[in-house]
């Protein structure tokens, strides 16, 4: 039965007995007391859920209380500018580190040593934009990213490219999930939502292979979300990849990323 909450009370158009029962049930629904809206869909980011156990922070820096807000705003601006410039380059999650010598934006790209010449122009353009916006002291560094076939960000980027080229949605997500499973993933799930294939009514299509233990901290579950811009609207893409189950005692970030020579 449909329940609506209007200014904290149930509609007065219902009979008295039904109003009492619905009002009693509405008290059990999670509610945000600051507004009149119901709270729905509490979800935890899989990478955030496994911080310090399977993954390291994507922002490694410290600031005093008076400078923290400025550093955080600059961090978000750096990610947005570099992400827009390198949107067509397949890469993992960006990392920002700050030391006494300056700030560094690390771009985790697969097989940097093989495609370094092709990425040199893109990285130099991003570096120039950062210098014009923030001045000297901030550099863009390319890092080698191991096992790109099991990276949720790279898989999501490939699905977005296929969707923008008007490929069939169900075929694209099945192909992406099967490719990750062939490269050793224990489980993978790919989901697309929106006006798929130009349909009038938005819907959700997803495909899953293997196991995906979202509640196990020891399981290495990578997650990424991306947005495909098409002529009939935006299509959201979400990817979950289960790479390993047993906890090895090592944290991603120090073991999975190797620094490439400076450009």
From TrEMBL:
GO cellular component, one term: cytosolic small ribosomal subunit
Pfam families named among the record's database cross-references: Ribosomal_S3_C
UniProt keyword terms in alphabetical order: Ribonucleoprotein, Ribosomal protein
PROSITE patterns assigned to the protein according to its UniProt record, in alphabetical order: RIBOSOMAL_S3
Origin superkingdom: Bacteria
Chain positions covered by the region annotation Disordered: 1-38
Domain Small ribosomal subunit protein uS3 C-terminal: 161-241
Keyword flag Thylakoid: no
GO molecular function, one term: structural constituent of ribosome
Xref: InterPro entries: KH_dom-like_a/b (IPR015946), KH_sf_prok-type (IPR009019), Ribosomal_S3_C_sf (IPR036419), Ribosomal_uS3 (IPR057258), Ribosomal_uS3_bac-typ (IPR005704), Ribosomal_uS3_C (IPR001351), Ribosomal_uS3_CS (IPR018280)
GO biological process: translation
Protein family per UniProt: Belongs to the universal ribosomal protein uS3 family.
HAMAP family noted in UniProt: Ribosomal_uS3_B
Job description of the protein: Binds the lower part of the 30S subunit head. Binds mRNA in the 70S ribosome, positioning it for translation.
Subunit structure: Part of the 30S ribosomal subunit. Forms a tight complex with proteins S10 and S14.
Stored PANTHER family: 30S/40S RIBOSOMAL PROTEIN S3 (PTHR11760), SMALL RIBOSOMAL SUBUNIT PROTEIN US3C (PTHR11760:SF19)
Name assigned to this protein: Small ribosomal subunit protein uS3
Species this protein is from: Tremblaya princeps
